[in-house]
Amino acid sequence: MLATDLHSHLIPGVDDGSRGAVETIAMARGLQAMGVTRLHLTPHQFRMGNDFTLTDLRRHVDETHRLLTRAEIRLELVRSAEYYYGERFVDALASGEELATFQEGGETCVLVELPLQQPAVGVRRVADALARRGIRPVMAHPERVTGLAADRERLDAWRDAGWRFQLNLLSLTGHHGRRAEELGHAFLAEGVYDFLGSDLHRPAQLEPLRRAREIAAEHLASEARP
């Protein structure tokens, strides 16, 4: 589980993540040293002015692959995107627009970020719409979504509707605030998460990420014990 990083912002210069080749190489090298072998490149989509075509995304991934190959960094790169749950995303579903899906665990999946502060409407209906297309929605960092601590039944209802959940490992070390840290630990202990991701934006996050991976590894090891 820790060998795959489902959520990262390492493509240079496309969003609020890597600002250039030097940062991308530093972060990729750090992830490789921590044992990551499969890295999903997930630039923001339908947010920050980004409305990439799949051709755009393939080009960005290919360019990043060439950059890392020249730096002798061997990672399997997966083309994906972090879709923002909003009007543009709902319109894309309604029109049948092709999405930047990925294969994980034998399923076709798509990574989606809910608004962190405002309530999201129609989350179960969106899961139904994706299911009709054979796509499993994966919710990025639910521990960061305001209100879930007080409304855990909603999380269960979303899972029943077909959503799966991705932990931001950096939440475990307080990078996203105390509330996200507490929820991240609680959800991890309760087995809420199906996937792990760094949501890595900067090389400075590598050290707290290393500590977070140790925490997650200890938890996964304890689960495996008889």
Describe the structure in your own words:
The structure is a single chain. With 226 residues, the chain is an alpha/beta fold. The mean pLDDT is 96. The protein has one domain (4-224): Alpha-Beta Barrel (TIM Barrel), CATH 3.20.20.140. Strands 3, 5, 6, 7, 8, 9 and 10 form a seven-stranded mixed beta sheet that branches. The chain has a three-stranded parallel beta sheet with strand order 1-2-4, covered by helices on one side. It has helices at residues 21-33, 54-70, 87-95, 123-131, 152-161, 178-189, 206-224, and strands at 4-5, 38-41, 44-45, 76-79, 82-84, 102-104, 107-113, 136-140, 164-168, 195-197. Helix 1 links the parallel strand 1 (4-5) and strand 2 (38-41).
Topology:
Elements: E1 4-5, H1 21-33, E2 38-41, E3 44-45, H2 54-70, E4 76-79, E5 82-84, H3 87-95, E6 102-104, E7 107-113, H4 123-131, E8 136-140, H5 152-161, E9 164-168, H6 178-189, E10 195-197, H7 206-224
Parallel strand pairs: 1-2, 2-4, 3-5, 5-7, 7-8, 8-9, 9-10
Antiparallel strand pairs: 6-7
In short:
This protein is an alpha/beta fold and 226 residues long. Helix content is 39%, strand content 17%.
Broad shape: globular
Q: What fraction of residues sit in β-strands?
A: 15-25%
The computed structural class is: alpha/beta
- The DSSP helix count reads 7
Any low-confidence stretches, pLDDT <50, length ≥5? Answer: none
Q: How much helix is in the residues? A: 25-40%
Q: What is the gyration radius calculated from CA atoms?
A: 17 Å
Total strands: the figure is: 10
Q: In CATH terms, what is the fold-level topology?
A: TIM Barrel
